[in-house]
């Protein structure tokens, strides 16, 4: 009976996964066939697949340049999130005057949409002289409040005795953070990497505002430029989507187990 329920549960999960993968399959099929997405009855298997749409995406716009820009900006954002969020999350595990106010301030800031702060962010970037630069593109994404609390939950799950032993050995707070706490918080690191990569990879509004040179644009902006070159956009658009989605899917698949553990690290203790 137990084995039968186990098999049934896996069959249900496989069916749900198949249903969720249908849109991805349909996008990929349309990208390699150029079929009409409104055709009835729908064709399940691709007919005469080809890669012409992917070639058009690569050559009609400087796709390689946009791709490199997105990779550089995402790497900067990921590095900033790991360093700054880990430091902030570690600080929030300590007891200090005004800690409750700081936590409430962070939580209240999560209610403010980025569009409401985009003008101050632009003015700060202009004063810093980072407009139309990789650092300027990644600046608003160098730290995210959600990921700060992910690190906070992960650090609170680590026994305090390890920190006390490190202090007895003469380690400072920064060395405790980077040499003891971070190696034990790999799920939180994976969560930060995935979330910060996806958010920076898909950012559109901020790169649109801060970039002045076409060669500094990222892939979301390249999509708007690409659509200006093609007439029949269905297959070409889906080919562009496939090429943009692939890096994010790869990053997620590489760290999916740690990502799930990172999101649930503060749920249980002991």
Q: What is the number of E strands?
A: 0
Give start-end ranges of low-pLDDT stretches: none
Query: What share of the residues does DSSP label as strand, in percent?
Result: under 5%
First and last CA, distance? 32 Å
CATH topology of the largest domain: MetI-like fold
Output the CATH homologous superfamily of the largest domain: MetI-like
Major sheet: none
CATH hierarchy, class of the largest domain: Mainly Alpha
The value of Rg in angstroms is: 23 Å
Mean pLDDT: 85
Tell me the number of helical segments per DSSP (H or I, 4 or more residues long): 14
Query: Percentage of helical residues?
Result: 55-70%
Computed structural class:
mainly alpha
CATH architecture assignment name of the largest domain: Orthogonal Bundle
Dominant shape: globular
The sequence of SSEs as H and E is: HHHHHHHHHHHHHH
Estimate nothing, just give the exact number of structural domains: 2
How would you characterize the overall build of this protein?
With 270 residues, this protein is mainly α. The chain folds into two domains: 1-50, no CATH class; 51-263, MetI-like (MetI-like fold, Orthogonal Bundle), CATH 1.10.3720.10. Helices cover 70% and strands 0% of the residues. It has 14 helices and no strands. Helix 1 (2-33) runs antiparallel to helix 13 (233-254), helix 2 (52-60) packs across helix 13 and helix 3 (63-91) crosses helix 7 (145-156). The longest helix is centred in the first third of the chain and has 32 residues, at 2-33. The protein is globular and about 70 Å long. The two termini are 32 Å apart. The model has no long low-confidence stretch (mean pLDDT 85).
């Amino acid at each position: 009976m137990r084995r039968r329920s186990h098999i049934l549960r896996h069959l249900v999960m496989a069916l749900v996964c198949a249903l969720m993968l249908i849109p991805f399959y349909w996008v990929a099929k349309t990208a390699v066939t150029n079929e009409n997405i409104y055709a009835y009855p729908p064709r399940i298997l691709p007919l005469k697949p080809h890669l012409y749409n992917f070639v058009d995406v690569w050559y009609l716009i400087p796709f390689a340049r946009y791709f490199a820009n997105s990779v550089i900006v995402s790497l900067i954002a990921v590095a900033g999130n790991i360093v700054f969020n880990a430091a902030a999350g570690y600080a929030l595990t300590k007891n200090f005057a005004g800690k409750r106010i700081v936590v409430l301030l962070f939580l209240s800031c999560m209610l403010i949409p980025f569009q409401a702060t985009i003008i101050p962010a632009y003015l700060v970037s202009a004063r810093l002289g980072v407009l139309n630069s990789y650092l300027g593109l990644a600046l608003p994404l160098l730290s995210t409040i959600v990921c700060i609390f992910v690190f906070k939950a992960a650090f609170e799950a680590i026994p305090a005795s390890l920190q006390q032993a490190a202090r007895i050995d003469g380690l400072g707070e920064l060395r405790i953070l980077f040499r003891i706490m971070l190696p034990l918080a790999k799920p939180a690191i994976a969560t930060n990497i995935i979330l910060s990569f996806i958010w920076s990879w898909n950012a559109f509004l901020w790169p649109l505002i801060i970039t002045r040179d076409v060669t500094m644009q990222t892939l979301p902006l390249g999509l708007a430029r690409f659509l200006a070159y093609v007439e029949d956009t269905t297959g070409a658009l889906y080919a562009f989507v496939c090429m943009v989605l692939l890096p994010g899917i790869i990053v997620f698949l590489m760290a999916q187990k740690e990502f799930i553990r990172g999101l649930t690290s503060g749920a249980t203790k002991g």
